[in-house]
Amino acid sequence: MSPFKPDLRDEPAVRLDGVTLRYDRTGEVLSEVDLILRQGSFTFLTGPSGAGKSSLLKLMYLAHAPTRGVIRLFGQQTAELKRKQLAALRRRVGVVFQEFRLLDHLTAFENAALPMRVAGRKRESYQEEVADLLRWVGLGERVDALTPSLSGGEQQRVAIARALINKPDLLIADEPTGNVDPDMGRRILRLFSELNKRVGTTVVIATHDLELLRDTDAPVITLNNGLLARDVERGGAA
C-alpha cells in the first residue's frame, strides 16, 4: 500500500463530528451531532416527528452540507472533495426516499433499472437481475406497469428495488415500510438484512414502526430535538 494512499477499509462508513444543520426558515434542526457507523453495521434511527431524522439522513447521502462540523464517508472528508469525487462517492450510496421519486413515464422495471442505465450497462446484462429483485419484493406481475398505475405500496417497493439493485456500500432508507402491510414490511427488512450480511452493506433505517424495532436486535439511535438522545445497542454495535 502506498504511503500516499491510506487503506480506508477500516474507516467508519459514516462519521459525523460536531455536525450542526441550520435551515434559513426553521432554524437549527441538528445540533453538534457526533456519530460513528462502522462498515457493515445495521442501525435503526428513530425519534418523534420533527426530531431531525430526515435531515440527518440527507447529510449522510450528501444532499445537504452541514452548517458546521465534519462529515466523512468511508474515510473521505466530504467538504474536501471535488464534484467528480462527490459523484463517485454518491454512487456507493443507495437511498430509499420517503417520496419515492419514481419517473411516471417509466415502467416498474425501468425505474428499478435506472442506476444500471446511468452506469452505462446494456439491458441484457441486468435484465434477469432486475426481474429477480422485483419478484422478490412482490412485483413479479407488475414489471411492465407504469408508475401512475401502481399503488403507493407498490411504488415504495419499486423505489426499494432501485436502491438495492447496485448492491450499494451504504444503504439509507427513510421510512421504507411506511406504505406496505406488516408482512411485506418484514420481508423488506429481511431483504435489507440479507444485503447487510451477504454483501456487507452498511444499512441505516429511519422508522416510526415500533413493531419493526421489536423484531430485531440491531442497535437503535434516537434523535430528539436535533440531538442524539441515546444510542442503544441490542446485540450489535452501531
Tell me what the structure shows.
With 238 residues, this protein is of the alpha/beta class. The protein has a domain at 101-167. The protein is 32% helix and 25% strand. It is built from eight helices and ten strands. It has helices at 53-60, 83-90, 108-112, 114-118, 123-136, 152-164, 182-199, 210-214, and strands spanning 14-23, 27-37, 42-46, 68-73, 76-77, 93-96, 170-174, 202-206, 220-224, 227-232. The protein has a six-stranded mixed β-sheet, with helices on both faces. The chain has a four-stranded antiparallel β-sheet with strand order 2-1-4-5, with helices on one face. A hairpin with a 3-residue loop joins strand 1 (14-23) and strand 2 (27-37).
How are the SSEs ordered, and which strands pair?
Blueprint: E1 14-23, E2 27-37, E3 42-46, H1 53-60, E4 68-73, E5 76-77, H2 83-90, E6 93-96, H3 108-112, H4 114-118, H5 123-136, H6 152-164, E7 170-174, H7 182-199, E8 202-206, H8 210-214, E9 220-224, E10 227-232
Parallel strand pairs: 3-8, 3-9, 6-7, 7-8
Antiparallel strand pairs: 1-2, 1-4, 4-5, 9-10
